[in-house]
Amino acid sequence: MDASLLDIHALRQTFPRADGGELLVLDGIDLQLAQGQIVGLLGRTGSGKSTLLRSIAGLMPPSAGTITYLGRPVTAPAPGIAMVFQGFALFPWLTVLENVQLGLEALGLPDAEIRQRALAAIDLIGLDGYESAYPRELSGGMRQRVGFARALVVHPNILLMDEPFSALDVLTAETLRTDFLELWSEGKLPIKGVVLVTHNIEEAVLMCDRVLLFSSNPGRIIREIPVDLKQPRKRLDPQFRDLVEKLYEAMTARTPAPPKIGTTAGAVATTIDSILPRVSANLLSGFLETLAGAPYNGKADLPVIAELLHLEGDDLFPVSDALQMMHFVEVEGGDIKLVQAGKEFVDADTDQRKHIFQRQLLANVPLAAHIRRILQERANHVAPKSRFFDELEDHMSAEDAEATLRSVTAWARYAESFAYDDDTETFSLENPT
Amino acid sequence: MGAFGAVAVWQIVVFVTQDITLSDVATTLLLGLATLSRIVVLIALASIVWVPIGIWVGTRPHFANVVQPIAQFLAAFPANVLFPIAVSLIVAFKLNPDIWLSPLMILGTQWYILFNVVAGAIAIPTELRAAGTNFRVRGWLWWRRIAIPAVLPYYVTGAITASGGSWNASIVAEVASWGDEHLQAKGLGAYIAQQTDAGDFHRIVLGIAVMSFFVVLINRTFWRPLYLYAERKFRLG
């Protein structure tokens, strides 16, 4: 019988909000990790996948529900669950060897064993010769190798990886992935299961046996997609491409908006309290032009255009979301298609583009229309940022509220709908006449 | 700048030597050593107390938000307002002023150590702290490998400020009065205070020159190298 290493049931995580309320980050999470599996958590920013990983690591006790590791509830860091961090998280004052030894010292092992095991891990992960180097002397790729060695040396049953390759350049990341998969497939790693957080669809297909797809705000598991391809996997293999396509499709599918007070459930109607994607107006117009031009002529496969524009999942989706939100494009079945307003925009000159953008913005992004209306109503046509910030913060985290205001400001500036002065933190209807 | 400094030093030498013997200089140097040893002991004691407390507070953000302004207020608080209480206690318990007047020197300056260490502990990146927690680094190992190295550059900054301030504070702290009670410790601060009372300009200048010499010497030979080392090895990021 294939015993579960990890069993998560009905997990819920909330963060306290500034106004004393709670922000729901993860809801109804069920997850089992079996021996010998790599499970991928795939989702956009704000889907709570990193929060889930931190919960498994015991860094965050569940608000509700249970996390069970080898039959015991996890509420504090458990021995046998080790983590690799996105930003490496190495101690700059410790050498490579000392960083790797730290977890063993914490276990209180004898010095000779600590040294011997640390050197073995360093050797395994390809860091031979760097034992006495400090992290600042190493490249990003070598630093993350230290991160891996430090996690593996404690012989964990479960390895947690929090976007471990996303801070590395493309080539280095690929080398590290391949090296890891090789060691894993050959059974040279002292681990029994892996949970990998990623926003990179290809990475998920390359590494995982099972991919769990997360929705955002709050994070819920919306799909589970098994990846049955044999290792080593080839990115150009048609089956690989099919899966990538399928995941793109699933990630851009219109899911019913989570029921929220004061909003109607249903299609992805944007409301005043919707979190807006962070993307510049320039990137939006550049994307529209690319989409309109040859060879796409108004319709493209998302993975294909993503690769062409060097946009990974987390960079692509904000663009496609924003364009879809303003009804410049339609996204369906992993394809992105220019619609009427998008065509008009591409054909127009600079001035007309601003008009079209303004029209689409005010018609489809309620927050922009709301800010403009308030400014028009006020005698001096000025309103402090805090007025809107507080309003947003009732529905989202301070961070998201900040990002949302930045996005709407950037778009409104381009459309010349209203202006914002960062020194005085005020919005105004700038009338430069 | 160098020429200006040389002229200033020469002026001081000329001015001071008009009325002063070598034995005066020897006396001030010895008194300086007495004050120095007080400061060394006091900074060490303050560090033992405030570094752990500062780290404890700084790694608990809610606490830090409360403690930080209090520490800054205490650093600005005129500590000599409290001297009369100390004097009456020393008199009442017949304590040795050479020892028991000393804590007054650091009363107002120790807070620099506290709030710098708090700031240092707050600045430890979340991911680094998570890594420590994840690998279950706890107890003395946590202090030794993570907390103390992380705050070291901040601590040194605080300690430099505290020790420099303590030299100045010695002028008011080594001599303290309350009503008819006058207490005095042997030290350079007391010397300067006495000469000021006596209006002996030559010896005031001598005392201040020797004090400045000590402060600069300690900074150059101890604090600065320590700071550069801490900055190079322990600075995050």
Written description of the protein model:
The complex is a heterodimer of chains A (433) and B (237). Chain A is α/β, with parallel strands linked by helices and 433 residues long. Chain A folds into two domains: 4-252, 3-Layer(aba) Sandwich (Rossmann fold), CATH 3.40.50; 281-428, Arc Repressor Mutant, subunit A, CATH 1.10.10. Chain A contains 15 helices and 16 strands. Chain A has helices spanning 49-56, 96-106, 111-124, 140-152, 170-185, 201-207, 238-252, 281-292, 302-308, 313-325, 340-347, 350-364, 366-377, 385-393, 398-415; strands at residues 4-16, 22-34, 37-42, 64-69, 72-73, 81-84, 158-162, 193-198, 210-215, 220-226, 299-301, 329-332, 335-338, 382-384, 419-421, 426-428. In chain A, the strands form four sheets. A six-stranded mixed β-sheet of chain A has the order 6-7-8-3-9-10, with helices on both faces. Chain A has a four-stranded antiparallel β-sheet with strand order 2-1-4-5, covered by helices on one side. In chain A, a hairpin with a 2-residue loop joins strand 4 (64-69) and strand 5. In chain A, helix 11 packs antiparallel against helix 12 and helix 14 (385-393) crosses helix 15 (398-415). The model of chain A is unreliable at 256-267 (pLDDT under 50). Chain B has a single domain (23-234), classed as MetI-like fold. In chain B, 80% of the residues lie in helices and 3% in strands. Chain B has eleven helices and two strands; from the N terminus they run αααααααααββαα. Chain B has a two-stranded antiparallel ribbon. In chain B, strand 1 and strand 2 (181-184) form a beta hairpin. The longest helix of chain B is centred in the N-terminal third of the chain and has 37 residues, at 22-58. The radius of gyration of chain B is 21 Å and the shape is globular. The A-B interface holds A 54, 57-59, 77, 79, 81-83, 85-87, 89-94, 98, 102-103, 105-107, 150, 154 and B 125, 127-128, 130-131, 133-138, 141, 145-146, 149, 233-237.
